[in-house]
Amino acid sequence: xxxxxxxxxxxxxxxxLETLTVPQAEREGLLDQARREGAAFARGLVxxxxxxxxxxxxxxxxxxxxxxxxxxxxxxxxLPGVALPLSFLRARLLLPVALSDGTLTVAMAxxxxxxxxxxxxxxxxxxxxxxxxTEEEVREAIEKAYxxxxxxxxxxxxxxxxxxxxxxxxxxxxxxxxxxASEAPIIRLVNFVMAxxxxxxxxxxxxxxxxxxxxxxxxxxxxxxDVESPPRxxxxxIISRIKIMARLNIAExxxxxxxxxKLRIGGKEIDFRVSxxxxxxxxxxxxxxxxxxxxxxxxxxxxxAPDTLSTFRPMVSAPYGxxxxxxxxxxxxxxxxxxxxxxxxxxERKIITIEDPVEYQIPGVIQIQVKPQIGLTxxxxxxxxxxxxPDVILVGEIRDRETAEIAIHSALxxxxxxxxxxxxxxxxxxxxxxEMGVEEYLLPSCLMGVLAQRLVRxxxxxxxxxxEVPQALREEVLxxxxxFPEGDQRAGRGxxxxxxxxxxxxxxxxxxxxxxxxxxxxxxxxxxSGTIREKAVGEGMRLLREDGWEKVRRGVTTIExxxxxxxxx
Length: 569
Prior knowledge:
A hairpin with a 2-residue loop joins β7 and β8. This protein has 569 residues and is of the alpha/beta class. It is 39% helix and 22% strand. It has helices spanning 9-18, 24-37, 39-47, 53-64, 86-92, 114-124, 135-145, 153-158, 174-181, 184-200, 235-245, 306-317, 333-344, 378-385, 401-412, 426-436, 443-446, 471-481, 517-524, 529-538, 544-553, 559-566, and strands at residues 94-100, 103-108, 127-132, 202-209, 214-220, 223-226, 257-265, 268-279, 282-290, 321-326, 351-355, 366-369, 392-395, 416-421, 447-459, 464-466, 490-492, 503-514. The protein is built from 22 helices and 18 strands.
């Protein structure tokens, strides 16, 4: 690999901050971000209009000594003798531009990306030197050299009329807005953004308006990634097009709205859930991608350790009782419960769910969507479900005392009840129910177990390789957890299969608390979660982080991933 850039990421971010003219109060917050966010910090400054893309390029040149990249016809064609995946070039915003005497020169939007330079060096066997370019010029050069000219965002944007309204000033402009949003280039542009998200395996699309930019990000394997964004002038037309597709009111931009879209992409019917909310610079849109074919409705594929699965299966298969799954939003709780339903459903059992929202349809299961605006809440719906003679009831979430009490009474009267709670760990679910006002003598009679879970990104099989753990990371793990997962450590180098990230897919890490006789006694005495945890660990419960460390030892994920999802606060 070429000579390292003689400045650390943190030092660069801090020195970059010194060049900005911002109030002292804001500077202190930015300094904290500079130390925490790493590579995302500089891109964030550009997205928010605090720094121009050209100023960032100059900073790489002046602070890091990285020469500037300038586009010319010679750099906009494939470099002979250098074969790198297009998905990798797009993901890392990196373009090979020259090869001389065994040294490969690459243009990079982020010349401090040492992992990308190392990946190029390993793939080509060349010494690598970087040039600094802006995101836009590197991305455009990549598409000119390697991309499909008929399908790139740049080509689509070139076809959009210049007469696109940037803001909506009143209902009299609605007709004009509908006209622009119905133009073929805007339709193709929105379809391009959505199809690219499907191609990348994203779960959400974020369109975020700022003063000088419209930022597009995809959530891939639980982590947001910046992607190619259309120009700010097309913001209103793009958002109007999405609102038309979701059958929302395009004249209303002052209130949040929610809708759904169903599209056929790549031969599959895919549902998109659309949410808009007004912000300072226009409407922010988040599109949740509900691709049922990508959901692993099989407990074998969720990442359970064999001993955990052999304990969890009998719980959810029992004829009556209650099983809870806990964790933060996006930790895969609903997927786990759907997989459990898929496994236990049969012609002899009637299964009814009440959810908010119903994200995926399960054949053979009756599913109900809550509608609070007409009085159909979890509590009222659950009360009616019991009169439908079900065998199994899935309650999307226990949010209040009324829902908790009805769910518990349902479990006590011969129903199997599955539900979720938002708590950090399994013992915390017990104390949360007690805090809601549930009588402590009811819980031991019906609660069979609590499963806490998180999702970690898994190392890409195609580029997984042994790694040396930096001493600083080793010390951080020991300082934070008191133990280090010794064994053969692995990490992904970045390749076409994983779009240069080193990760592909996700797996669960789990903490299963069976409600044993010992735990029941603690519940009756209203013991705190720490005491319940200590008792459960003494009886063999494996904590979330310990399950994560086991996956690190087996080369499934990395130390950084386990730390990321198990940190509290």
